[in-house]
Write a structure and sequence with these properties.
Blueprint: E1 8-13, E2 19-26, E3 30-36, H1 45-59, E4 64-70, H2 74-79, E5 83-91, E6 97-106
C-alpha cells in the first residue's frame, strides 16, 4: 500500500484577513503541525484548527493521528485526547534538532 504525501492545510484569519495560525494534516497518519501567532494565543485558535483537522482526518478515513509535539505543546495535545508514546528529537526544516514528544490519538 502506498503512502499519500499530500498536505492538507487550514489557515485561521481574523476579520481583516490577518493570519492567526495554521494547521497541517499529512495522510495517512500524521498531524503535521498547528502553529498560532503569539498575539492570537490563548484565544481558542489552535483548538479550532485542531477540530477542523480532526474532522477532515475522519472524513479521509484516518484511524489515528501521530505527531512530534514540541515540549511546550504537550499539554494542549493531551487536552485534545493525545497520549505520549516516547520522547525524542525532531529535525526542523532548517536542519536544527528540537526535543519533542511523539504523540498519538486514536480517532
Amino acid at each position: 500500500m502506498g503512502t499519500d504525501k499530500s498536505i492538507i492545510s487550514f489557515v485561521a484569519v481574523d476579520d481583516l484577513g490577518k493570519v492567526l495560525g495554521f494547521g497541517e494534516l499529512v495522510p495517512p497518519v500524521t498531524l503535521g503541525a498547528i502553529y498560532v501567532a503569539a498575539s492570537a494565543g490563548r484565544r481558542g485558535v489552535a483548538s479550532a484548527l485542531f477540530e477542523k483537522l480532526e474532522v477532515k482526518a475522519r472524513e479521509l478515513g484516518m484511524k489515528v493521528l501521530r505527531m512530534d509535539s514540541s515540549l511546550t505543546a504537550v499539554p494542549f495535545y493531551i487536552r485534545h485526547g493525545f497520549r505520549e508514546l516516547e520522547r525524542g528529537t525532531h529535525r526542523l526544516a532548517d536542519g536544527l534538532m528540537m526535543n519533542c514528544v511523539v504523540m498519538e490519538k486514536t480517532l
